[in-house]
Amino acid sequence: MSASIANAVPADYRSARESLAHRVRRGGVLDVEGADRVVFLQGQLTQDVKAMAPGEVLPAAALTPKGKIVFLARVLALPDRLRLLVPADSRESILAHLKKYVIFQKVAISDRSSEFSLVGLYGPRAGQIAAPGRTVSLPGEGEFSAEILVPSDGLADLERALERAGSARVSDETAEVFRVEAGRPRFGSDADASNFADEVGLDAAISTTKGCYVGQEIVARTRTYGRVNRRLVGFRFPDGAIEPGSLLKRPEEPEPGKVEQGRVTSAVLSPVFGAIGLGYAFRDVPAGARLVLAADPSRGALVEALPFSP
Known about the structure:
By secondary structure, the protein is an alpha+beta fold. The chain has helices at 3-8, 11-18, 37-44, 91-100, 155-164, 172-182, 216-225, and strands spanning 21-25, 27-33, 57-63, 69-78, 81-87, 108-111, 116-122, 136-139, 146-151, 168-169, 230-236, 247-249, 262-270, 274-282, 290-293, 296-304.
């Protein structure tokens, strides 16, 4: 980062880029226990939970029979349970969804969200943090270099340890900039129940070797015989940020055609990359192409692969 840029950016952004910073995240924590827990989640999730070793953490998704996303999660394998880390705002609906399928199986699912906090760590010094007490270290996700799952009664001790280490607390606004820069979609805004998993770039969450799960036939068919019509991409906005929800078209189109060429789902102002966002581009729109705002063709969006890079 150049000196001129460094002088213009918020202190928490600079710390997260160059040293160490943290953010306490709201998270949902669902524990799946019982003798049939592995078999149950093996049939519900895209990830091969049967092959997970204790302490391993992997991304996963649940799909409808038609292959659309129900929810996104990370699975933490523990010796006596499988712990799902899910968006806090979705945990009640996810819990209800899973309980619908627990029929004649030795499985118990409990919401333990109030008992834990998630602390995301940013920066090159994140690996130097030795979390105190009864914490679980998690691999980084998206913009985070690492994360820590901490019991709620141990959060204050962890925050004091981070302060002693010189960690800066990241604001909500800066956190959103980092999320978009990293290209991590938020369920409910950048991805929802209308999306196929492959549209959102969930390759790491989908096992290609496990047996059947809900939606597996659609995933396999798409990968074997076709491709999705749209994909999650980054956008650079050289003419200023374009609002989420805005429809994009090709510059040569007088009006938006029947095929949606692009749509913006998130937009931020990055100190490094300028006005950028996330959204979807039609499959035939390549990286580097320029789309324009359908409502104002003088304003453009350049398609970019994720994550953003200088």
